[in-house]
Amino acid sequence: MTDLRSHVSKGGVSRHETFTPRYGWLKKGYEAAISDGRVFIAQDAIERLGVGKNMVRSIRSWCLAFHLLEPCEGEGKKGVNGALQPTQLGNRLLADDGWDPYLEDLGSLWLLHWQLFVPPIESASWSLAFNHCVLPAFDRKHLARVLVSAAQQYDKLSALSESSFDNDASCLIRMYTGGKVDPTVGIDCPFTQLNIIRTVEESNTFRFVTAEKQTLPSLIFAACCFSYANLTQPNQKTLSLHKIVYEFNSPGVVFKLSEMDAGRLLDDAAAQMQGVDFMESVGNRQLLFNENPIDLFWHALELYYADEEFRGAKK
User: What are phi and psi for residue 239, nearest 5 degrees?
Assistant: First the structure.
């Protein structure tokens, strides 16, 4: 068993420069890195990407956070000065002939939301917030205090300034609920469509939405479960519903799902995948499979994006 907590302290704070990921940014960053892996540190990066200096750094950070770009071999230790290259997910999702290059489908946004919690973790505060914030309602200051408190469990993070976590709290809330954006840009963050954080009526506070996620496709959820299995127990062929719903950085925690809703999604996904079952075993409900979980991750995504109804909607 691998505990994903050990990866959180390797992540950073406020690398997004307070900007939420905006429409078009991920495709823009992906394509720019294909042309030049050092585009984000180029002297003319502002002109080539068509955004401000801080936004250049933000696009780079979000492309890393969503695992669409990764350091080139041998460049990982160079930090922000290292060259980047597209990942397998980046190519399969965002290439011009890829699954969903302009992120028009909500399933793609759910998949990218999951990537924020997959090592290597770029933005540590997302893991801290989704795992440690149990407040029924919160504002930016409340969430920042949760982040600061949770960060004390991690040596590297505990030394960071409270203002950095305050910036992350603000960015995280705006990423999923909207809010004012730069009027000169006039574009919002696509992740507001997930409705995973909602404004509490007649107040200036927010809450995590734990109700059924009607826009979360079952095959996308199953793919994330296989991703989680690969990260935590790659040599096993079962994954318990309890672990899926309650463990640190598990799909249930990341998507804020109940056992009933997670079970419903897995029932539906298992019916669409050969060699995959979701059933009662030794008194526990478990996901059972006969292939390597990472192979099933890609297979579930291929099934989802090959669906004729999905393809028809893209035409």
Answer: -145, 120
